[in-house]
Design goal:
The protein is an alpha+beta fold and about 525 residues long. It folds into four domains: about 160 residues, Alpha-Beta Plaits; about 80 residues, MutS, DNA mismatch repair protein, domain I (3-Layer(aba) Sandwich), CATH 3.40.1170; about 120 residues, DNA polymerase, Y-family, little finger domain (Dna Ligase, domain 1), CATH 3.30.1490.100; about 110 residues, no CATH class. The chain has 14 helices and 23 strands. The strands form five sheets. It has a five-stranded mixed beta sheet. Helix 13 runs antiparallel to helix 14. It is globular and about 70 Å long.
């Protein structure tokens, strides 16, 4: 293995980067809602219906994983390994002690809990490092740059952050701390669940060296297998390899993973785009005192309005969050006729929405402005701010559809749709030699939203149906002679391939994903 990169101090070593990764997030949310599920094997299924065997595993708790249940596994296969408790209780051939619980995905609730986590993270960063940044990369994962904290206080900051997340959101997180993003991500996964691993600048190479190469950020299963064929099995092996040879074999990705293996990653922790909303929340000792609640909401409203003004953001929706003990999250919102910048109006609307909970005991309150507009537009008339349709309550919104392919790219007549962007192992697709796949004539792709913010892609045997609610999972992929299209269905989006298109695996610096590409 090579020696130190330089005898001089590297200024990049001053950076303190944290990677916050929630532990089995979907399962943790279900346990938050049903405390009796804690410690029990729990499977959360995408497209799953109670007492049925359709769908795919979105998350398996650590207890369920001991039975061989894993992400993207068909529910039917998961049930063979881990029967439902209710079924085991009725079948003398099954052991209730060797059975588990199954729940369908409830993305709306998970996003509410995720917002609690993000609020805790952003507050902690603002208090510790006013110049710090947060990059939320998925529903359960964030990067933080808190360089002002310094290395002497980095571990205590991360420990306090974990405690704050659990106290305010009720779920646990694993945190990795390192001088750069890729090493911090590896560190957060090193001691899951509920782990804290700090890798100081002078420890990075020694920390990474013995790890299997597949643990490195940006190395998917296919790349790991190809590296193994070259005799490269650990991060240390990869760090010592010839970067030119890696570039010849893997292109630019080869150089990127070589840098990561050596603990080199110059990427900055930058927020993803402009915020869609701004909010402020505060926990308090459980109370039903009306004055206390109104004073807190008034203060939060002023804080949020000032933040929006400082960012040059107008807002069209004003809302409140009310958390009743233990974790009963309620949201209310009201839309205006147009975007405004009006702190008094934020307070007025927030207090009016709060009045619904005047007699309730609460443990946390929050105020949010959303539907932000950063353009230089004229402010809407205050005389017309009332929403003609009235207040919008969380329970009154139409059901949220499952996410379809997230982005498109085009170059000439080529067009690609992201078909999956999930964590390693979040899908059942296997490469077919050249990294391309095709669908059988009777198969379709169903795309769901995955836990990490990408999509979970499952292959279904659809027969002649376009959007079957109860299709069976199949495991083979060959060509489909049909136009590429997306249709809404009860189980997600049905994706078919164009006659001249294939599925192509994309191994990048982020999670593995699959793209529909026009054939060369």
């Amino acid at each position: 293995m090579d020696g130190p990169l330089s005898a001089e101090r590297d200024p990049r070593d001053d950076r303190v980067v944290c990677h916050v990764d929630m532990d089995c997030f979907y399962a943790a949310c279900e346990r938050l809602r049903e405390p009796a599920l804690r410690g029990e094997p729990l499977v959360v299924g995408m497209g799953y219906e109670p007492n049925e065997d359709i769908g795919a595993v979105a998350t398996a708790s650590y207890e369920a994983r001991e039975y061989g249940v894993g992400s993207a596994m068909p529910i039917s296969e998961a049930l063979e390994r881990l029967p439902r408790k209710v079924d085991a209780a009725r079948d003398d051939d099954l052991d209730v002690a060797e059975a588990g619980f199954y729940r369908p995905v409830d993305m709306g609730f998970y996003k509410e809990v995720s917002a609690e986590v993000r609020a805790a993270v952003e507050a902690a960063v603002a208090e510790a490092d006013p110049d710090g940044t947060v990059r939320n990369v998925s529903i359960d994962e964030s990067y933080l740059d808190v360089s002002a904290v310094g290395w002497d206080a980095a571990e205590s900051f991360a420990a306090a952050l974990r405690e704050r997340i659990e106290r305010e959101a009720g779920v646990t997180a694993s945190v990795g701390v390192a001088p750069n993003m890729s090493t911090a991500k590896v560190a957060s996964d090193y001691d899951k669940p509920d782990g804290l691993v700090v890798v100081r600048p002078d420890e990075v190479r020694d920390f990474l060296a013995p790890l299997p190469v597949g643990e490195l950020h940006g190395v998917g299963p296919v790349t790991a297998d190809r590296l193994a064929e070259l005799g490269i099995e650990t991060a240390g092996d990869l760090a010592a390899a010839d970067p030119a040879a890696l570039a010849d074999a893997f292109g630019s990705r080869g150089r990127a993973v070589h840098r990561h293996a050596r603990g080199v990653d110059d990427r900055e922790v930058t927020p993803v785009g402009k915020p869609k909303s701004l909010s402020s929340e505060k926990a308090l000792s459980t109370t039903d005192d009306g004055t206390t609640k109104r004073e807190l909401v008034a203060g939060l409203a002023a804080e949020v309005a000032e933040r929006a003004r400082s960012k040059g953001a107008l807002y069209k929706t004003i809302g409140v969050k009310v958390v009743r003990p233990p974790f009963d999250i309620n949201t209310r919102a009201r839309s205006l006729s147009g975007p405004v910048d009006d702190p008094d109006l934020v307070e007025e609307v927030a207090l009016d929405l709060l009045s619904e909970f005047a007699d309730d005991r609460v443990r946390k309150l929050g105020v949010r402005v959303s539907n932000l507009d950063f353009a230089d537009a004229e402010q809407a008339s205050l005389a017309g701010w009332e929403d003609p349709e009235g207040d919008v309550e969380a329970g009154d919104r139409p059901p949220r559809r499952a996410a379809g392919p997230r982005s498109t790219t085009s170059t000439g007549d080529r067009r690609g749709y992201v078909a999956a962007g999930a964590k390693r192992g979040m899908n059942k697709l296997a490469p077919a030699g050249d990294g391309r796949w095709r669908l059988a004539p009777h198969a379709h792709l169903i795309v769901y939203e995955a836990e990490d913010g990408g999509e979970l892609l499952t292959v279904y045997d659809c027969g002649a149906a376009q959007a079957p609610p109860r299709a069976q999972v199949v495991g083979h992929l060959v060509r489909v002679d049909a136009a590429h299209e997306r249709e809404r269905s009860p189980t997600g989006y049905v994706v078919k391939l164009r006659e001249d298109a294939d599925l192509v695996r994309q191994d990048g610096e982020g999670p593995d994903h699959y793209v529909v590409r026009a054939r060369e």
